[in-house]
Amino acid sequence: MKVDICFSPALYPFYADGNNYIAVVVDIFRATTTMCAALKNGAKCIIPVASIEEAQAYKAKGYLVGAERNVKRCDFADFGNSPFDYTKDKIEGKEVVFTTTNGTQAIDAADNADILTIGAFSNISALTDFCVRKQKDVIVLCAGWNNRFNIEDTLFGGALAARLIDRGYTSASDATRTALSMWREARRDTRGYINRTEHIKRLEANNLQDSVEYCLTEDTVNLVPVYDKETKKIN
Amino acid sequence: MKVDICFSPALYPFYADGNNYIAVVVDIFRATTTMCAALKNGAKCIIPVASIEEAQAYKAKGYLVGAERNVKRCDFADFGNSPFDYTKDKIEGKEVVFTTTNGTQAIDAADNADILTIGAFSNISALTDFCVRKQKDVIVLCAGWNNRFNIEDTLFGGALAARLIDRGYTSASDATRTALSMWREARRDTRGYINRTEHIKRLEANNLQDSVEYCLTEDTVNLVPVYDKETKKIN
Lengths: 235, 235
Hints:
homodimer, globular
């Protein structure tokens, strides 16, 4: 089996060959980390939607809604894009509608994959085991930022690829090799490495850096969110 | 001034903001290295075309034509995509039509830039001086492989960015930071680093590795090819 890494939703058509693989959508800061946290805290499921309008329509019907654009919570929404927003007392047993600048669009891009999962440092061990058990090729789809390359999602791709390669996978591409090399450089001081990224500046400018440490911590969540193509829900 | 690096022609719209910058199109193996070599050897100009059909039409009119797809020379063409094909005796004073798998498509993608140049390790010093003289932002557009990320073009982006930053530019993005970090790792043994790439395997499988060393050698060409938007020629 092979592991490949696609740096942007806009590049996904050039990485997806057929559909017999697991797509792992990743948006470390913060959409996919937040989805993992919400499901861990007992949300019944997440309903990802790409547009603000869809999210508002759900809100009008009484759903709980998480909505973020350009790192900020949308005014009409119950939650923003911080994993700390989705506490057990607020979401246990509830369906949560979710839209973010980049993460939910990436899910849309990859929904032809045989299996579409949500990845984050928080569930990396569970995700590794899941992929190995399924014995399928893996494509990590980095959400990026407005289709631009970003370091944090790529770094996660490298970390997951390193684990999969330890379990018998091979590197599929120059992109995977580059992500592996970044991960080797960053792993001893991930926070320091991440300090040099574009997105940290965006979070800091909006006083939203409180979850950075959590978003980079491995294995706080022992589950693998999977997108159900029929119901269009993640659980 | 800023230097940014775009990893694929498909991502270019997300990197190009306005048009007040220098685009540097790069396809190290081998289109842009070959264009630099052809102009050094006295070609009057290069006429880049995106499709085989256009190249064939020029051939029918009596033009010299270089044409490559998937590393191989097209049957109808005078030359393939090796810099060694374009010798002084064959091309001096002549207009050369040129189409390749990735390089000429990248030129098409970036033709809204204020100045569109052709970059390669072979003209890196001349190109650095050119950019500094123009005092404009720079976007390196990596041709990639069928819109996929590749290491060799990114490495060139890192090498050019390092030189520009030494001359007062700043890094624009996570992509630039990553390319700089790759270049720092690779610069002492570029050939060894490149040995791990996808494209070396393609070249070796077709016995075309003879020009790899040349394509990685700095400063064998002291000129900067510029695309003229009115005539659609490079000279």
